Amino acid sequence: MSILSKPDRNYFLNVDRNPILHGILKKTFYEQFCAGETDAETRATIRELKDMGFRGVIMTYAKETVFDHRTNTQQGLGIAALEAEKNNDTAHPLVAHCANIEAWRKGTAETVEQLDDGDYLAVKLTGAGPTVTDAFSKGELPPPQMLEALDQICARCKERNVRILVDAESHHFLSGILRVTLDLMRKYNRDGYALIYNTYQAYLKSTPETIAKHMTVAQQEGFTFGLKLVRGAYIASDERSLIHDTKDDTDAAYNGIAQGALKQTLGKFGVETTFPSVNLFLASHNKASVVDAHNLHQQRIAAGLPTVPVRFAQLHGMSDEVSFSLLQLKGGDGSPEVYKCSTWGTMGECLAYLLRRAIENRDAVLRTSDEYNALKAEFGRRLKSAFFLS
Ligand SMILES: Cc1cc2nc3c(=O)[nH]c(=O)nc-3n(C[C@H](O)[C@H](O)[C@H](O)COP(=O)(O)OP(=O)(O)OC[C@H]3O[C@@H](n4cnc5c(N)ncnc54)[C@H](O)[C@@H]3O)c2cc1C
């Protein structure tokens, strides 16, 4: 997967041009983790996920750029995008019209139309190409064309009641992504709920401080803070020293932030100063993290204690046992609200995403023992009931 993700692929290693390689990957990796290469395939997958009982879907258009800290290179832009960049953006800081931003806008706008009322759009801002990632590398806002595209997408989502989760990406681009998303929250989260959520990676040592800064802005300026919490997916390419030293530290950070938000005591908020309006989105495959968070939320509601609205999500093709365990806890009030998050795009566009899923599923081997035990118990139950009936 890592070799196939490199931009200078020859015909045989180009997944969009070599039909045999494309066919093999489509039936194995792609169909496990992705929604579709076309609008029709994607809509069919969305229907299937909703029929399984999920509250809704989160859909992403796959185009993105990953920065590899070890080699100091960017990966993930499709060949077409690189060609467009060469043809159009030779002096790119000054370009008036960037073909990559337009391609990203078009793909993202198409994604919005695939979604229904109450669904979520997830966006990877680096998919808009080098003019945008160059600005993000410097912690700057992207060019006006990108800001206009984002504004147009947010307005359309608001009209269609589709909320937006802005993904956290490689650390190299993160300060720019956080900055542009905070501006969007400031503008659009003013109706008592979060239309826009920023994603915070609990594995980064700096995350509690980042959250505290953004909560201060939300409190002072009176908008709802959209807090999507993940552990973080770029451990293989980001600078290791920025990430907690052990998995236990990342787990403690994740659970501390999630439970602090649900108890409305996070850092100085809820202790020295009032707690701002927060909407929480917990994206995780860790069963203990999500079940504990749901139980805490229910206990606080039952005891009449303050808490914040919370929703849960797992990735399409991963940890169905966790998703269905959450769905089985569903009470009369419809909570927990569980979503499945999928990605659509051509095979080439989805490669960087598929590579992260391949790496992550090495961790998931640990979790498969839970799924194996659940399947074994279910098999035993069915066997017993078959004997009982006969
Ligand atoms: C709906 C959804 C949306 C997501 N969106 C994003 C996103 O926008 N950006 C993003 O970066 N990720 C995103 N992720 C992926 C997420 O960050 C995790 O990589 C993934 O879910 C695995 O973590 P987990 O919470 O499921 O738990 P687990 O499987 O219990 O934890 C695995 C994670 O722990 C951390 N970890 C593992 N080993 C170590 C170690 N030695 N030291 C320190 N930490 C370690 C890593 O973050 C690893 O991914 C998303 C996940 C979901 C479900």
Automatic annotation (TrEMBL):
Start and end residues of each Proline dehydrogenase domain: 77-365
Name of a matching Pfam family: Pro_dh
Keywords: FAD, Flavoprotein, Oxidoreductase, Proline metabolism
PANTHER family the UniProt entry points to: PROLINE DEHYDROGENASE 1, MITOCHONDRIAL, PROLINE OXIDASE
Function: Converts proline to delta-1-pyrroline-5-carboxylate.
Organism whose genome encodes this protein: Penicillium malachiteum
EC number: 1.5.5.2
GO molecular function, one term: proline dehydrogenase activity
Name the record gives this protein: Proline dehydrogenase
Source organism superkingdom: Eukaryota
Recorded family membership: Belongs to the proline oxidase family.
GO cellular component, one term: mitochondrion
Catalytic activity: L-proline + a quinone = (S)-1-pyrroline-5-carboxylate + a quinol + H(+)
Cofactor(s) it depends on: FAD
Cited InterPro entries: FAD-linked_oxidoreductase-like, Proline_DH_dom, Proline_oxidase
GO BP field: L-proline catabolic process to L-glutamate
